Amino acid sequence: MSNVSTDTFNVPELYLLASAFGGNVLFGLPEKQIYQLKGEEVFEQAHNRLIEKGILNGEGKITKSGAIIIQALEYYYQSEKYVRINNLMFGFPSDNEDELVMMVETEEQALYKLFVISKAIVLQLLSEKFPMITREPEEKEKNFLKQELTNKERRETEQLEPGDSMVNLELFHLNEKHREASNPAYYQQWLVFPKEEKLIMVDTVQRKYYHASQYWFLKVLFDEMEFPYKEAK
């Protein structure tokens, strides 16, 4: 019996699948050229693994289950924006506003799982994985969106080690002409974590530290993930 995982793919396998629709760049993955420089054997092994997984048949042709995976990968490839939340990467199909493509990085820059999943399920998944999303705001958070920390508060915050409680939220808008990290319309990165009763959000590009209201945090998240606000109950 094969011990090859049928729902997890390494980078060469994903690039082989992407070649079905002419995709040479997959957002969030190492560049294809890195593996091409290692020689043909890398992709030959990937091809054999895809056969073992039933993605390709013995003749190297795409199976029905393979077609489903390739379609999901193509949706991901065609997305004009991406959101990364820790090890989860999301693409946005242009012809379906109710679903997202979720690529889960199970091993850093090595192994990935791919899903087409409804936004309602994604919101539920994120709420379970990141309790900060369902955090009860302090009463005074109703009176502000975000407040920049004082120098003293910032120094204290810089000494913190948030650990597993931290959410790394990255936003990429590829349809922007000026693809520079300094352009917030193209790229933003927020580190979000609790500090005692407060919610801290760090703009890593602008190097600004904020005490954020729960409303503002959720607005950033919901706007970028294109969640309907009515589902935030």
From TrEMBL:
<protein>
    <recommendedName>
        <fullName>DUF5081 domain-containing protein</fullName>
    </recommendedName>
</protein>
<dbReference type="Pfam" id="PF16887">
    <property type="entry name" value="DUF5081"/>
</dbReference>
<dbReference type="InterPro" id="IPR031682">
    <property type="entry name" value="EsaE"/>
</dbReference>
